[in-house]
Inverse folding.
């Protein structure tokens, strides 16, 4: 398997170029396409945030029915967002960008980052303690709400894409070549899976599957998803990981989330649900359909999920999913 990073960057870069070309060709009377969204978070049933390209942050205070833009003051891509409660939140992205709000997003402030890498994922277990994963298998950590950030862990020169914690102690980080790292104390990290090598016979790369997303369901149970419809699950704290074979085409799976037996996975033109912890799966109805798009982030909300993706797509539902994005955006969040 060749190295996936360049392929993913080219894919997203191609989407960006197409969006830019479409914007230039749009007549004055029409609107340009909204920015792609990469991450979504709901600390409670009513309040949610999503982030994406060109520094965009969207906020909802009505369970995802309507969304408003929040001014971030930057135009860097924001790849991940995390709110442990309705007031405190963080968004991270390119050029070592870390943004923080303490007032639900009315104001966003840039925090100092100890590395100038592309920050891929962020998770805050409490309003004070959080983690960021990035390039060079690096994990950043703060215990003072981001006033100071330190490099907590670094390993080989691979990319970590996702991070998720079940509580302030137990968390997982995943990324390139199937690498999985676990902490049981919030401080020390141990490799649980992943490999990379060169075949002596063919000279080709021999490596694990690229992992895009992870979700810590409990201190013992976690899910991870990646390229070629790769889905893996642990129920013993990561001592063993079981690969699940799903009845779906081979596509990139970008994110996974679970809540009380419900599991949701999203990716390229695909969104699947399990209502029995992963034993059986179904494809809910989306209106409009997502066959020719992609969904990059998903978060539990109430009895269902909210998922976000290409050209500002936001869908919400449980049995069926309806669009809550694009046409439902307001320009600012000053009224909330």
């Amino acid at each position: 398997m060749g190295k996936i990073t360049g392929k993913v960057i080219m894919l997203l870069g191609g989407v960006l170029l197409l969006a830019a070309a479409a914007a230039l060709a749009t007549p004055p009377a029409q609107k340009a396409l909204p920015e792609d969204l990469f991450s979504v978070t709901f600390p409670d049933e009513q309040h949610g945030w999503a982030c994406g390209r060109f520094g965009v942050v969207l906020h909802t205070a009505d369970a995802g029915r309507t969304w408003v833009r929040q001014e971030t003051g930057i135009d860097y891509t924001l790849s991940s967002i995390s709110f442990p409660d309705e007031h405190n939140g963080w968004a991270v992205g390119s050029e070592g960008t870390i943004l923080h709000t303490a007032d639900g997003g009315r104001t966003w402030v840039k925090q100092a980052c100890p590395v100038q890498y592309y920050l891929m994922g962020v998770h805050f277990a409490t309003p004070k303690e959080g983690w960021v994963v990035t390039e060079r298998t690096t994990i950043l950590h703060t215990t003072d709400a981001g006033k100071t950030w330190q490099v907590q862990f670094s390993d080989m020169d691979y990319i970590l894409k996702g991070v998720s914690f079940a509580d302030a102690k137990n968390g997982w980080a995943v990324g390139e070549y199937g690498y999985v790292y676990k902490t049981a104390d919030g401080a020390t990290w141990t490799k649980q899976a992943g490999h990379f090598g060169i075949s002596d016979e063919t000279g080709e790369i021999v490596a694990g599957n690229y992992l895009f997303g992870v979700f810590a369901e409990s201190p013992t149970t976690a899910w991870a998803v990646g390229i070629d419809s790769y889905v893996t699950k642990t129920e013993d704290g990561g001592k063993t990981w079981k690969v699940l074979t799903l009845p779906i085409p081979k596509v990139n799976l970008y994110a996974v989330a679970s809540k009380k037996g419900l599991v949701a996975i999203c990716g390229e033109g695909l969104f699947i649900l399990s209502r029995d912890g992963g034993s059986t799966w179904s494809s809910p109805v989306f209106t409009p359909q997502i066959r020719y798009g992609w969904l990059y982030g998903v978060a539990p909300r109430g009895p269902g999920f909210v998922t976000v993706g290409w050209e500002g797509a936001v869908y919400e539902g449980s049995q069926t999913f309806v669009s809550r994005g694009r046409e439902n955006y307001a320009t600012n969040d000053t009224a909330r």
